[in-house]
Amino acid sequence: MKYIKPFLVFEWITILGVSTAAYIRLDFPLYICLSFVLLGIILTLFYSRRYEKKEERFNNSK
Hints:
Elements: H1 5-24, H2 30-61
Helix pairs in contact: 1-2
């Protein structure tokens, strides 16, 4: 998980930056921008938990 955490930080900076720019510069509705952020939260939690379970199984098998 230590190699994935820097990627997640970069991912969150990108998601927040794009949604902010879409709201301010492109006049996207706020609910669309918030749905992008919510989708990012859901996907991040899903894949990080999935990866942690795989890592835990790998460590227990040794």
